[in-house]
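user: Here is a favour to ask of a fellow structure person. I have my own habits and do not want them to colour yours. Could you put it straight underneath, so I can go through it closely?

assistant:
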Amino acid sequence: MAGNSPRSMETVRAKAASIGPADFTAARTNPQFVWRFGRRGRIERSTDGGATWAPQSSPVHADLVAGSAPSETVCWIVGRNATILRSTDGVNWQLVPSPKQAEQSAQPPDWTSVEARDAQSAVIGTEDGRHFSTSDAGKTWQPQ
């Protein structure tokens, strides 16, 4: 698959504070397959390089701030209030459990970065520099 090469994969991150009401960030695996996302759980996907966009059903209303798409069908998106989402078919989104180690504080973490290798493996991070990795689609997380 052409989108799996490291050179064709682009990951775009945004600081949570920089997301405005009409702003989106994007994750793309190649120039044709692009996701954009932002406030209140909004997710859209383009399969024609951004010429047209199709809304996707999001299971959350939290602001989404970073994404990584290692293939044409796999995308991980993270955001505020410990939100982690994953699509493995390019259309449907599932909530991924947040690392229990990160949720021991009084307030759920705001995830600000994600770097995904495939549908099973990703590293997520907080603005304060904490990072966690999974190799089993979020069933377990390891501090980095």
